[in-house]
Write a structure and sequence with these properties.
Number of strands: 0
Largest sheet: none
Helix content: over 70%
Distance between the termini: 90 Å
Radius of gyration: 30 Å
Length: 79
């Protein structure tokens, strides 16, 4: 059974009487800020994952360069 229009209006009036408009306005602003920060954090995490993947690829290239330099130093010292 769904609540009708009159039930929702009565519930709204009771909530307004209990909490007042100022507290409800502040609570709404807090909830809106929380959603905004959450969306921003999710977007930042997606960007960091892409950035981390590109860094991993760079490290692979640097490791190969370091290994080749170490191998050349080893062969130079053997001569």
């Amino acid at each position: 059974m769904k609540p009708g229009l009159w039930e929702l209006l009565i519930l709204l009036v009771i909530i307004l009487l209990l909490f007042g408009t100022k507290k409800l306005r502040n609570a709404g602003g807090d909830i809106g800020s929380a959603f905004k920060n959450f969306k921003k954090a999710v977007k930042d995490e997606d960007g960091k994952q892409v950035e981390d993947q590109s860094k991993d690829a760079d490290f692979d290239g640097n490791d190969k360069k370091q290994n080749s330099e170490q191998n050349s130093e080893t062969t130079d010292s053997k001569k």
